[in-house]
Amino acid sequence: MNRTDRLYALVEELRAISPRPRSARWLAERFEVSVRTVERDISALQQSGTPVYAEPGRTGGYCLDKQHTLPPVNFTPSEAVAMAVGLHGLTGSPFHGAAAAALRKLVAAMHADDVARARLLAGRVRLVAQPPAAEMPRLLADALSIRRVLRIRYADKTGVGSEREIEPLAFVGMPTYWYLVAWCRLRRSVRVFRTDRIASVVVTAEEAPQRDLMDDLRVPGEASALSLV
């Protein structure tokens, strides 16, 4: 077991029996390391802010303050990308460094497969300046992660409506609107849809085929790819 895994396991062991303590010797035997190694690990946890305390006495040991900790939380790839979008909006603010650290912790707690999916999803988001605050329907917001063909009702700039089946490819956040880049089956080419003009969304049962068109995507202005820090 490497040190990172052991630190996590130490916290989980102490959480499981909290508020009762575990002695350094017991923990050393449990994780097959020396007592000195356990003491160094506990010190590292305390310095990182983990509420681990030492109880003196013959029956004492280390214990975890359960009221000041949270159990492991499983974040989905979409939730991780949502955090990354929020972090982008803090660029230049006094809170950017703290938010970046929080995102790194979030990614570190995720399963490797979910991290890979999150990075793939983040790579399909482009941001130009500060993205708009306007909300979009949940079915539309999940368009990239569900990977299904969508049937939409869309109004062009003149107000003329049309119904189309599209294969979502990417989101682009501009200062005023969000745009959905997709393969349009009606036009048989890539089209960009302003999300506030999409009147309705139906998720079909058909899985969208893989299309690697992101390298060809040209976005005006100073566009930046979203990333998981």
Describe the structure.
The chain is α+β, with helices and mostly antiparallel strands. The chain has two domains: 66 residues, Orthogonal Bundle (Arc Repressor Mutant, subunit A); 149 residues, no CATH class. The strands form two sheets. Strands 3, 4, 5, 6, 7, 8 and 9 form a seven-stranded mixed beta sheet that branches. Strands 1-2 form a two-stranded antiparallel sheet. The protein starts with a helix and ends with a strand.
Distance between the termini: 26 Å
Total domains: 2
Specify the overall morphology.
Answer: elongated
Rounded to an integer in angstroms, the radius of gyration calculated over CA atoms is: 24 Å
Report the helical percentage. 25-40%
As residue ranges, the low-confidence spans are none
What's the count of strands?
9
The biggest sheet amounts to: 7 strands, mixed
Number of helices: 8
Order of helices and strands: HHHEEHHHEHHEEEEEE
Label the structural class. alpha+beta
Percent strand: 25-35%
What's the mean pLDDT score? Answer: 80
